[in-house]
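Consider one such protein record:
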Amino acid sequence: MDNTNEVRNVSDTALWAAHFRAEESKRPDALFRDPYAEKLGAARGAEMAKKLPQGLNYAWAWVARTYLFDQFLEKEIADGADLIVNCAAGLDARPYRMKLPATLQWIEADLPEILGYKEKKLADDRPNCQLERIAVNLADESERRSFFARLADRGKRGIVITEGLIIYLSPQEAAGLAQDLSRVNSLQHWILDMHSPRLLKMMQRNTGKALEKVGASFKFGPPEGPEYFLPYGWRPIQARSFLRAVAPFGRPPFYLRLLAKLPEPNGMRPGNRPWAGACILQKDGTAS
């Protein structure tokens, strides 16, 4: 990662995310604290965001995503998870900022450039668990499967997280990733974020147009919601709306806080409304 303040590719969106984590951390009522976000490039992320249409809007949604992933992970670890695999880890600092068992295995997988940048920035800091970084191009099917094969016996109750990744995949790419993950014996649950078709179209009309020019198109927002992954070996067991998660804390604007009072869609399908949330899927062993 060089010093440009222009978004060049999907990896640069990690700097954007770091900016929102840093801003939330400055609040006296912060929903989480990330003291590493500034060091990891939050200032550059803010400059990048300024150059994108609506790039500094919807900070509440970025905060909600981090908040919900933290909550899901805390529960999974309390329930005995012994392995966390963070695919497309970006500039996530959870191994450093969260209270974690010293014996917990945490694997970060991403492209060599972003992992090298992160390694350098955090060289003087120590993680709270057994952290390992593995350079891998998850878009390359062969390379991805080779990486997953190395995880087969790494843990008894493994969790995979793909924060901010799935939206950039086509439906076929998301299905392929899901099938490959379902074949990893050590992985039992999958934490991911998803968007409804209507919200996806709204995002594609503004920020998405600029990101499309650098090969970071918003693509994935299936009408089935998390149930899309049922044929590929994963059953949804929980879905929480970003809006409803942080509306009680006053993060979204007032008009959206009013919308948060509406009933959630039935089941796991978002229906014909703008919706984004964090989901937990459980391996069910019925991949086609």
About this structure: DSSP finds eleven helices and seven strands in the chain.
